[in-house]
Amino acid sequence: MAIVERRMTAKIEGDFVVFLIGLRINRWGKVHKWLPIALSMPRMLKELAAAPDSGFLGVQPLGGTSMVQYWRSLDQLMAYARDRNAEHFPVWVAFNKSIGSNGDVGIWHETYLVRAGEYECVYNNMPPYGLAMVSQAVEARGQLESARGRLGKTDGSDAAVPADGGR
Q: What is the pTM of this model?
C-alpha cells in the first residue's frame, strides 16, 4: 500500500465495535491442537469479507496471531459468532471439545463498544491503517489537528505540533 505523506485521521458515522482477538500457543508440540484453530481464521475473514451485510468492516493484523477487527455493531458480531452455518461456530465448538481449559492453546478477545464521536486516531506517513482503512480517511487539519480536537473537545488549536511542523 502506498504511504500517505501527511497526517490523516479516520471518520466513521455512528457507533461501531473494536474487537481484538488472538491465539496463544502454549504447547508448541501439540500441533494437532493449535493448527486447526490457526488455519480457521483466514477462512472466517474470507467469509466475512464476502458478506457486506454481516456488519464486519475490516481487519488490521497486529502481527503473529493477533488482530483488530472492526464491526458496525455488537449485535452483528454476536450474530456471526453464534451462526451455526458460518465458519466460526464449528471451530468454537471443536475448541471447547478438544482443548477447553487444558492449557494447550489460549484464545483471547476484547470487545469495545465505541459511541459515535468518542474515538480519536492519527496516522502520519502511513498507508491506510486501522480504523482509517475500514472507514473514511481524512486529513488531520483544523479541528482535527489535535487529539482533543478529534474528540470534539477543542477547535484543534491546542495541537502540540501543528501538522505543518510549525513552519
A: 0.93
